[in-house]
Amino acid sequence: MQERVTMADVARAAGVSSATVSYVLSGKRPVAPETRAAVEAAIAELGFTVNSTARSLRTGRSSLVALIVPDIANPFFAQLAATLQEELRGLGIHVVVCNTRARRDEERALLAEAVQQRFAGVVITPFRLLPRDFEAVTRAGIPVVVSADVPFGPVDQIMPETRTATRQALERVTAARRRRIAMIAGPRDATGGDPRLELLRTLALQFGTSLPRELVVRGEHTREAGAAGFAELMDRRYRPDAVFCGNDVIAVGALDKARELGVDIPGDVALVGHDDAVFASLVRPQLTTVRYPAEEVGRAAARLLGERFDGRGVHRTVRVRAEFVARASA
Amino acid sequence: MQERVTMADVARAAGVSSATVSYVLSGKRPVAPETRAAVEAAIAELGFTVNSTARSLRTGRSSLVALIVPDIANPFFAQLAATLQEELRGLGIHVVVCNTRARRDEERALLAEAVQQRFAGVVITPFRLLPRDFEAVTRAGIPVVVSADVPFGPVDQIMPETRTATRQALERVTAARRRRIAMIAGPRDATGGDPRLELLRTLALQFGTSLPRELVVRGEHTREAGAAGFAELMDRRYRPDAVFCGNDVIAVGALDKARELGVDIPGDVALVGHDDAVFASLVRPQLTTVRYPAEEVGRAAARLLGERFDGRGVHRTVRVRAEFVARASA
DNA sequence: ATGAAAGCGCTAACAA
DNA sequence: TTGTTAGCGCTTTCAT
């Protein structure tokens, strides 16, 4: 049962007080070079590492960041977790993953827990949450980074910049003389809005066409919902010749149904996904999509948190640029 | 700035000592019913929740379990993380995700950190680690669950039971009169063995054929490696008519190359994957594969850890059964 | 059945 | 430039 080495042990070995050891580590007050050297030697010799539990208790701040998302098993969030973890590793911070299963009660419970446990920070993709649900966390002074399509009040935020990429997608589609644009959207979130849908509608107008209400269907972010949505659209008397999807999973479902119905993609209908999930390039035809890079979101989240740890006080919104990826489906 | 409610606050409100509050929570010594009721009422009224940092400092045990894997972004491990997290949630335990990027130094560093931070447990899929790398962790009394193909010494372990499923795959392939069996294996791990390869070799013999050395190629678990491996196999004068892959990602790469070379799957060559990753059913032809269920691994890991927390002392090995999934590629 | 109090290892006043 | 020391909130031994 290997004994734990404490600061007191290091202090004794270096012939100083434990306060000095602490200050050598934190750099929060000047330490004479020779003292510092002695302490560092003792640390190395004894193999000391700080007990972050004790530090947390003392400072009232843990070294944990909570990543709160609807589903970590979703490739986008999995990649986000991986990147965030690697970026935060150097700061000695661990990432705790929390699944909300898209349920508001879970989202709220997790947020409350982050406050109770005095987490160092929270990175969250809210699904049913409203801006006021964040009051407690921000009041507790816990840095929060929200990754969402819409503004969420006085928190750091990462928002996608999809206008350009979506415009390129529309350009490609309309250049192929397609005018009957449709969308299979994801579920409406708590804010009631749907930025992807609204953006597409706005842009469609600019391209001299439109996104008529009857060509918008809605479902979960699942393959089944994608298939159902596509079937529904094909039933319309005003049949679309281009279908935009809320994400790639939906698009894959649409692809399934198209094959089943004998609808040729992209011959009869052009299909555009969203996110560029790993499998977007695996299906046939390969999915033309709007890529939203999880790695960059993770890096931005880590950077925003890092700035907050350093005590910077202004809330920032970082925009992450989505990229149009032209493949075979449109 | 909302004040934190401590046990002392609860004790004061209930007219008892903080020790009693602690014992009401832990049940480690009898408390009079009316005392208990008073304490519970105070807890509810004040909205008290224990400070797990303080508890950890005192007990020398945190409420964190580390999930140490080569890559959380890998769908298998992402699903494992999700399940583990949900199963452990009820025990008040958080899951910290740790990426090793398949590097031994990272694996060792993470294991060492788990000891230093007195984690409540570790769930690990070792990649380059040897059994003796676990000595420190077990000596520290930290429950370890290893998910691997081979035995790893005195730890709880989850091992796949793939014999039956692999036999079924071979049955299907040989029933179609295929005899020239090949494999695109993953990288050789630190133990030097490759159970999937060895199992296939053994079974092939039983089916009256073999897995000749020249029909075994090896690479990383990537799409590129799969493509390269397949190309190499198609170059052999003794050309295989059935190719087994170390995992589904490799199989997808093989599929890419087959299409490029004009090799018909399954007409010319049958292709069998491994794991049943999400995209196995997305590619065309859909992948015939040996499904290894991450959910069950996660549940088993949580169960094993739970037993250890309860103080059960024997090391157990849980076998998780893989399942043959027949689709179009073989 | 309950309470008093020590102390886990660290940080940050306050002193010198 | 460095040391002394008081806690952070909890668990648990020792008393009662």
UniProtKB/TrEMBL annotation, chains A, B:
Which protein, by its recorded name, is this?
A: LacI family DNA-binding transcriptional regulator
Per UniProt, which keywords does this protein have?
DNA-binding, Transcription, Transcription regulation
Give the HTH lacI-type domain ranges: 5-59
| GO molecular function list | DNA binding
Q: Does the keyword Hydrolase apply?
A: no
Which one Pfam family would you cite for this protein? Peripla_BP_3
Q: Which classification does the entry list for the species?
A: Bacteria, Bacillati, Actinomycetota, Actinomycetes, Kitasatosporales
